[in-house]
Amino acid sequence: MGSKLRDSSRGDADGESLLRRDCDDNEPITVAVIDAVSRVAGVAPTALPPLYETIDPDALDGVFDAGSSDGESVRVAFSYADHEVVVQGGPRVTVTVTPDGT
Fold it and tell me: Residue 82: which of 45, 44, 53, 41 has the closest Cα?
């Protein structure tokens, strides 16, 4: 898959890891979320819990459908597998590792 990574895993002042990832036009947002979280967590995508236990994958993909310009002004944030996930119109997927104990 020809995903585009921006600011691949790095540490910030709080010791958190951050990965910003742009999505391909034909790539579902849910695939990008799982890919980004697995990269930051350092585990295989299959080791993550099912995304549907956290958020409705069809609804998330629908909001950011490549054929819809409405997704350009939308921002969705949720916790998944001990990570904070922010999906912004563009579409851009931003994953921030949630520190242990939060």
Answer: 41
